[in-house]
Write a structure and sequence with these properties.
183 residues; alpha/beta; Nucleotidyltransferase, domain 5; 5 helices; 7 strands; globular; Transposase; Tc1-like_DDE_dom
Length: 183
């Protein structure tokens, strides 16, 4: 709910002040998959998750949320998946690793530590922060969720933006298997 300020202008000597109704401890978490397959348009799969305060104190995605996301991606992509993800502590959870090891349609690769430049999803977050979320004081959590969904939906329908995020990493595609990049 804290507004990200990208840039501001004002007359010399008049410092701009942005009034915010109040900081909220409520939070919105998002996981995203950028999906690439040669010959098809790139996809973006994302489930926003609002903290409802009823999940044993956990405010972000749990390993079971990532498991569900991967199952949804498998259904939508209808084929084997090569998953490349960063070293987020939930991605390294023993339960999630055990679950992924038991899936013959899923091959998992870990990115090296501290390598956000190899993660196309970081480019998606950058587009969202610099575009739809910049210079907005959100009035309530629903306003934040609507703005995030509008921005991600726009990115989702512009596969050239998703392709640009992959190109920025320097990674390439294997023509036979869909590649999914998660965060």
């Amino acid at each position: 709910m804290t507004p990200p300020i990208a840039r501001t202008w004002a007359r010399r000597g008049h410092t701009p002040i942005i009034r915010v109704r109040g900081r909220s401890r409520r939070r919105v978490s998002i996981a995203a998959l950028t999906c690439y397959k040669t010959g098809e348009r790139s996809r973006l799969i994302y489930p926003p998750r609002r903290d409802d305060g009823q999940r044993d104190g956990r405010k972000s995605f749990a390993w079971s949320d990532y498991r569900d996301l991967l199952q949804i991606a498998h259904q939508q992509l209808s084929g084997p998946i090569v998953l490349v993800w960063d070293n987020l502590n939930v991605h390294l959870d023993v339960r999630l690793r055990t679950w992924t090891a038991g899936r013959d349609w899923l091959i998992v690769h870990q990115l090296p530590s501290h390598a956000p430049d190899l993660n196309p999803v970081e480019g998606i977050w950058s587009l969202l922060r610099r575009g739809w979320l910049s210079n907005v004081a959100f009035t309530n959590p629903e306003h934040l969720v609507q703005t995030i969904r509008r921005g991600l939906r726009t990115i989702q329908y512009r596969s050239d933006l998703i392709d640009g995020c992959l190109t920025g990493t320097g990674l390439s595609l294997n023509p036979t298997t869909p590649r999914v990049q998660a965060q």
